[in-house]
Write a structure and sequence with these properties.
With 155 residues, the protein is α/β, with parallel strands linked by helices. It is 35% helix and 18% strand. It has one domain (2-154): Alpha/beta knot (3-Layer(aba) Sandwich).
Length: 155
Amino acid sequence: MVLCDNFHSPQNVGMAFRTCEIMGVQHLYLLGDTPTPPAAKIKKTARKADELVPFSTSTNSIALLQQLKKERYTLVGMEITDTSNSLYEWKGRPFEKIALLFGAENHGISEELLPLLDHCYHIPMYGQISSMNVIMAMSIGLYEITKQWKGELRR
């Protein structure tokens, strides 16, 4: 499951649908003020993925994360913080129930949600800029987790 926390760009929402669809994500949550389908810009960018990936919305992100914890989801944030680990250190179990949270384009994951996370990971960057587009981060994160799961399944 992927959660989009207060995304602002409808194009990023459309790309979130596409990314989730190609990576086999079972559900997408659009949190807070994130634009929702059937907005024209989302539909154009999603290229029908918004019709293939089940989604829900929530304006109460804290309550949703608390409910997911009760449902035994591991809450994982993709964010650079003082305590985040490199994504390459991911130690998830294959196919455990994961809710992967991505934050707004300019501000990241909302401060009030960070304490609710079980883990926080960042993507190591080797250039001078320390941020990337949220959909690029989503793509890398989902790919790396899937790759590691597949490696674990081969053992």
